[in-house]
Write a structure and sequence with these properties.
Length: 137
């Protein structure tokens, strides 16, 4: 099938392939192609019309739901059952720093106590210091 598409989409190849046909046969092919094109155009228009009708119905339903004070989650809760649907999770505020230490360059750094312990703090603890020494008061 791809060979056919290669021939039909390149004018030189198409001309070479159709060289043996007379004008009447070429006109028949043109008529058939025109019919295929017009059917495809009609199908595309029908699909677009159906899609537009669907959009209009959705907009009408949204307006009706808004007027009635109904949210989509109210409908889904009844269908799914159980507790109310969870609202979208909000991003939490960052935790305040809990520890303060100096890195290898002598710069003061902080750490919340979450996640991987910073290398400089880990080295200090490995060398005998306690984590409580670095607590911010």
């Amino acid at each position: 099938m791809s060979e056919f598409i290669n021939i039909i989409t390149h004018e030189r190849r198409l001309n070479a392939a159709l060289k043996e046909l007379d004008l009447n046969e070429l006109h028949e092919i043109k008529t058939k192609l025109d019919n295929v094109i017009s059917k495809r155009e009609e199908e595309a228009l029908e699909q677009e019309k159906a899609l537009e009708e669907k959009r209009e119905k959705i907009a009408e339903l949204k307006r009706s739901m808004q007027e009635a004070g109904i949210d989509i989650s109210d409908i889904l809760e009844d269908e799914i059952g159980g507790d109310k649907l969870a609202s979208p999770k909000r991003k939490r505020a960052p935790k305040p720093p809990k520890y303060e230490f100096k890195d290898e360059n002598g710069d003061t750094k902080t750490w919340t106590g979450q996640g991987r312990m910073p290398k400089a703090l880990q080295n200090a603890i490995d060398n005998g210091r306690s984590l409580e020494e670095f607590l911010i008061k």
